[in-house]
Amino acid sequence: MPEQNNSILDELIERYPGLSSCRDDIWQAYVMIRESYQTGGKLLVAGNGGSAADAEHIVGELMKGFRKKRQLKPDMTEKIMNVNPEIGIKLCKSLQGALPAIALTGHVALSTACANDVDAAMGFAQQVFGYGNKGDVFLGITTSGDSVNIINALVTAQAKGLKTIVLTGRDGGRAATLTEHAVIVPETETYRIQELHLPVYHTLCLMLEDYFFES
After folding, report:
1. Which of 43, 56, 91, 185: disulfide with 196, CB 3.0–4.6 Å?
2. Contacts with 31 (C-beta within 8 Å, 6 or more apart), sequence order
3. Residues 203, 12: contact at Cβ < 8 Å?
4. Strand partners, 182
5. What was the pLDDT predicted at 5?
6. Model pTM?
7. Any bridge partners for residue 45, and if so which?
């Protein structure tokens, strides 16, 4: 493990000792997402209810600066300035480095069209089918592990060559048996599972940011 990423994970376990059983699984999820980004991939994230909010939260931490400023690299600054120096000054000061991620929870017209015309449980699967490419990662968040729309998306993702991760609780449910990798936090009640999901994905985002961006 890179030293800094190791310390970020150490801090998580120090603050949340109950997650010590998930340490290796969290690390493996990080590696899977990191390797996707290293090869030009992206992250697709989905969940229902509170987990839908978590999906949006994750994307927010990855697509702009989280703890670091993520200043643009000189070659991108030069390209922007070559297009339009006047507007480029503001852009170069304001734009931040991004790790491409899409929350599949916010596309109201598409999701309601799927629900009305086909089947509501196919909404995430349809988006994975349309957005996903080989080498991308699909992260499904489901506290029960049995959300049908997440399960449909997992199967679709693997058929398209995406790597899959499930963030869940309890015994992992059916989703844990249908994914390549599962992080199962040690709680059984929905709100308690969600309370542990947040520090887990914050840690993943911190480790990814630390790896890809300078201080």
Report:
1. 185
2. none
3. yes
4. 166
5. 80
6. 0.95
7. 103, 139
